[in-house]
Design a protein that fits this description.
Length: 382
């Protein structure tokens, strides 16, 4: 996890002042209440271990803890297996039917989902006992037979899903702390320089790594990208930059299709959420959520006095509610037609959220005395 404390604190102050002036979302007449719902199950690591960001599908949940262990849970929260690997990150793993593919401080590790046995371990950096922050891998994505990840120092790397062997590596012109995104044929990544404003977004051929196009973004606070399919057959790459705007690019040629002000800049580990019919739910780094249609028109928005720097929005859950983890250790629940509400996580600070099996809301906690992973019924209160 990469954070820029000074900029995040400044952002939180700015949005707090805006909220005091009446600019934040909240309950309004006719809106349905939102809540975490009942606890379906909970899992605890050995105290005082912190729990990472969960990943889930219909077959179960995988999460890391203590920067050392990977745990697989059944849909009902029962622990299936636990594996040890020094340096596994708190970012969400990638799940396939056969593998749990986990980012690490020095590369990427694939565990067999059935047994927890290591299928392959791709070391892309130096010594894991004294890791270089530039070698840290992001949450990977699957593009055909390739597992693709960003390295924080500025590289996009593709690995063979069967063996973990490096297939290709493409340089990026700045830090790439957030994950890439893919439609299986094209991989898109963003980057943000440590100095200056020359950030960017680029598309690469998933099979060989050749760059297809590159476009400029304003540096200083750039999100990871999302890919959004429109009803007219186009695919848009959407990211948020320091212009305080979400920007959409045609995946075929990099042409900018629209740009819409959202009131806040991006965070590298907070990608937008692609929804159906060309819609995109954008989170900005000062606690805002904005729903945009295929033309970039604003359809709904809300804001709370907190920063968002780790983990993008997830959902929708029951009734059309979305969740976003916040820097102050809480979770935001909101959606069109629903009241905006913020909740604390039992045992510690919220470290990640995900939609779990059966539409549950998974909430993990860290830096507390009783950190845990909980599955809530989630969504709108009846």
């Amino acid at each position: 996890m990469t954070r820029r404390p000074n900029s995040v604190i400044l952002a939180a102050i700015i949005v707090t002042l805006a909220c005091l002036g009446g600019g934040c979302g909240g309950a309004a007449h006719g809106e349905r209440a939102t809540g975490l719902g009942a606890v379906r199950w909970r899992w605890r690591p050995p105290p005082p271990a912190s729990v990472g960001m969960p990943a889930a599908d219909s077959d179960g949940v995988v999460v890391t803890f203590s920067h050392v262990f990977v745990v697989s849970l059944a849909p009902d929260g029962t622990e299936r297996w636990r594996a040890r690997r020094l340096g596994v990150r708190e970012e969400s793993p990638l799940l396939t039917p056969e593998l749990a593919i986990v980012p690490a401080d020095d590369g990427v590790v694939a565990f067999e989902r059935a047994t927890g046995r290591v299928r392959w371990d791709a070391r892309l950096g130096g010594n894991v006992e004294a890791p270089d922050p530039d070698d840290a891998a992001s949450t990977p994505v699957l593009a055909g037979g390739s597992v693709v990840t960003c390295l924080s120092g500025g590289a996009l790397v593709a690995l063979d899903v069967g063996s973990g062997g490096v297939q290709w590596r493409a340089p990026l012109a700045g830090r790439a702390d957030g994950p890439p995104v893919t439609n299986g044929r094209t991989v898109v990544a963003t980057w943000d320089p440590e100095h200056g404003e020359d950030a960017g977004i680029a598309a690469f051929d998933a099979a060989g790594g050749a760059r297809r196009w590159i476009a400029s973004l304003r540096g200083g606070a750039v999100s990871a990208p999302a890919l959004v399919d429109t009803d007219d057959g186009h695919t848009l790459a959407v990211a948020v930059d320091h212009d305080l705007a979400a920007k959409a690019f045609d995946i075929d040629d990099g042409r900018r299709v629209w740009a819409t002000a959202v009131g806040g800049a991006g965070s590298p580990e907070v990608p937008p959420l692609a929804l159906g019919h060309g819609r995109t739910l954008v989170a900005d780094r000062v606690g805002g959520l904005t729903l945009l249609d295929a033309r970039g028109h604003r359809r709904w928005s809300t804001r709370v006095p907190a920063a968002a720097v780790q983990g993008g929005p997830v959902g929708p859950m029951a009734g059309g509610v979305y969740a976003l983890p916040l820097y102050d250790g809480k979770v935001l629940l909101a959606g069109p037609g629903h009241a905006t509400a913020v909740f604390e996580a039992p045992g510690g600070l919220v470290s990640g959220v995900a939609v779990g099996p059966g539409g549950t809301l998974l909430v993990s906690s860290a830096q507390g005395r009783d950190n845990q992973l909980l599955a809530f019924s989630g969504g709108a209160d009846p």
